[in-house]
Structures are given as C-alpha cells and as structure tokens.
Amino acid sequence: MAEILDGWEWVDPDPLEAFLPKAGETPPPAPAAPLVDWKQAVEWRRQGKTEEALDALRVLLADGARNIEPHLAMGHIQFELGRFEEAAAAYFQAVELDPEHRTAYYDLGLSLGRLGRWQEAASAFQQALDFEATNVYARLGLGNCLLHLERLDEALAAFNECVLFDRKRPAGLIGRAVALQLLGRFEEAELAYAELLVQAPDTEEALANLVAMSAAQEDSAKIREYAGRLMRLNPQSAAALKGMATLAFAGNDYAAAAEYCAQLVKVVPDSFEGWFNLREANRELQRAAAARSIA
User: Fold this and answer.
1) Domains in the chain: how many in total?
2) Cα(62)–Cα(16) distance, rounded to whole angstroms?
3) How many CB atoms neighbour CB 196 within 10 A?
4) 3-state secondary structure of 20
5) Does residue 69 fall inside a structural domain?
6) What percent of the chain has pLDDT over 70?
7) How far, in Å, are 110, 204, 211 from residue 235 at the CA level?
8) Model pTM?
C-alpha cells in the first residue's frame, strides 16, 4: 500500500502562470483524488488519526460505496467515540445493504441501546439471534432491553438461555438475578446472586441489589451482611451507605444515621433521600439533646 505523506510541493510562481486559464477560458477539470481504501481508514483510527479516518470514510460513502465494510467501519469508530446516533445510522445503512449480516444487527442493537431506544434495540438483537441462536452476546443484549421494557418474564427467559449456554458468564447470572428480583421472586433472586458471588465475589452491583432487596423485605440481618461486604469493597458505595443508614434508623442510633447520610450526600450530592434523612437524623439528635438539657 502506498504511503501517504503530509506536505506541500512548492513551485516557482512564474512558470505556474502559464497554466492559469486565460480570460474567458474554462479551466480544465481537476484530476479526481484516489479514494482511500476503508482498511486504510481503520488503520488511521488505530494510529489515533481519527478525523482523517472519518473524513476518508465519508468520502467513500458519499461516492456511493455499495459494499458493507465502510459502513461497519464508520459505525465502529462512531460508537467508540460515544456518537451513538451516528453509529446507529451507519449500522442501519449496513443492514440495508446486507439484510443477513448478523454482526451488523448486533452492533446496531448496541448503538440503539446506548440511546435508550429499547424496542428498536430489542428488534435488532432478535434479528441477530434469528441468524445465530447461540449468540450469547445478542441474547444478553435482548434480555437487557426486555428488562428496560418491563417485559420481565421474557427477560428472565432470555437470561436463562444465556446461563444455559454458559453458566460461568457473570452477565447472564446477574441478568437472571435482576429479573427474578423485579418479579418479586426474592428467594430465587438471592440464590442467583449467591451463585454469581461465588464466581465473582467482588461484584458490587450484585451486593448493592441484595442490600436493596433485603431492605424491601425489612431483613436487618441480611442488610447488615450485604452492606457490610459492600462497604469493605467500596466504602463510598451509595447502596452500602443507604443500607447502613437504614439499620441505624431502625436501631434509633441517630448519630450513626447522620454520619452515614452525611457520607451519602457527599457521594451523591443530588440525593433527595440522603438530604431528607440527614435532616431527620439531625432533628432527632437535637430533640435528644433538648430532652437531656431539660432533665
């Protein structure tokens, strides 16, 4: 492949005048610049020449490229840059060119999911699965979309399929546990989280969900267990701080409750719940101080 160099070719202005068109003459058309191959654009992206890569791909696409690769390359780069609208547009064009390209449907689903367009994303993932039913990544994506669409039974079925294909994949296990939790099947959800934590003991998301689920069941022992484990992993975990504050309030330990709530609003400054509970804890402390002064 020819090397492309940056730079200018300087010329003497006097000889250049001989090539300028005379008055009334139509200038000759400029020779067309050769199109850069899409593979070169991908290589530029790898070298950090992102805008050069995108410009080259835009030229290819404007020239009416009928092969799918430039569209896939454009979608991939735009997705990496967090430009999910542009990525989705590129992948839409890709599947129009090749309606049987399973990878393009999967990538389209990812892009649409990042945009919160869950129904469209679910359709794209399903299309990928129609071509390859054992595509665990597409099934995980479908399950995630179904969770957001609150189609919980279908989401659970999708995650169960993921676990059936690969029981050691944490994403499938946590997806199944979340679906069970949202369905109110807490005992099954706790078992699913427990299986996940055997494989990945430091999964903060699982412990955070267990804290929330235990709080919903008003199970102080389990709140203490899971919030304590989470605090050891991440002392600034919002879920752990909420859990410990809940325990403190339940035990009328308002000093501890105020301390946990104060930490919580530092971690999550816009937490209405945190600020409200902090105020309530301080009010209880003031009442107790007033009562002691009277006594």
Assistant:
1) 1
2) 32
3) 22
4) coil
5) yes
6) 86
7) 32, 11, 14
8) 0.76
